Amino acid sequence: GQNIDQPTEMTATEGAIVQINCTYQTSGFNGLFWYQQHAGEAPTFLSYNVLDGLEEKGRFSSFLSRSKGYSYLLLKELQMKDSASYLCAVREWNAGNMLTFGGGTRLMVKP
Amino acid sequence: SAVISQKPSRDICQRGTSLTIQCQVDSQVTMMFWYRQQPGQSLTLIATANQGSEATYESGFVIDKFPISRPNLTFSTLTVSNMSPEDSSIYLCSAVDGSNQPQHFGDGTRLSIL
Prior knowledge:
The complex is a heterodimer.
Chain A: E1 3-5, E2 9-13, E3 18-25, E4 29-37, E5 44-49, E6 53-57, E7 60-65, E8 70-75, E9 84-92, E10 99-101, E11 105-110
Parallel strand pairs in A: 2-11
Antiparallel strand pairs in A: 1-3, 3-8, 4-5, 4-9, 6-7, 7-8, 9-10, 9-11
Chain B: E1 4-7, E2 10-13, E3 19-25, E4 31-37, E5 43-49, E6 56-57, E7 68-72, E8 75-80, E9 89-96, E10 104-105, E11 109-113
Parallel strand pairs in B: 2-11
Antiparallel strand pairs in B: 1-3, 3-8, 4-5, 4-9, 5-6, 7-8, 9-10, 9-11
């Protein structure tokens, strides 16, 4: 089984940087995914880490430390449209492509 | 990435009835999944839709309540049977093509039961 924890809510200011943390416990780690979900919409894929280190995609970066069971999503130059829920999801090697999602972090960006 | 279409996008149903949700992918995919997302909550996996065989259900979900079909590599259905108000939720279909690819989601079906 898995236990995935992320903060419930965060608030940040437009133009700033915010880091959303995710910790997990799993017996057979095979990748960690971050999704963005705006209210009333489907989750959209942001990033994927399977090896330790930082993956950068424009304003968004994701970091993974497998030994610590820890990941973060870093959002730079925040825009109002970044207000959304951010979902951390873990895949296990013995579960095919099945994902287990954390509770999600609701980010509010203020002017 | 694959484009995933779900229908209906929303529905309001009477208690005790059943509703079938359709999920169509614009390309062949290896795996399809069905999730439930209750208001203010994250996603919970209902089952993996297996092509040509019975779906694999997660703990707490059973075939009699959530029958699933996947007749080919681009289409799946989820039926919510004998609905009660507790089934009011968003139901999401996802698909993935390849072992190291991310899942992509349909727009979801918002279901309300009166």
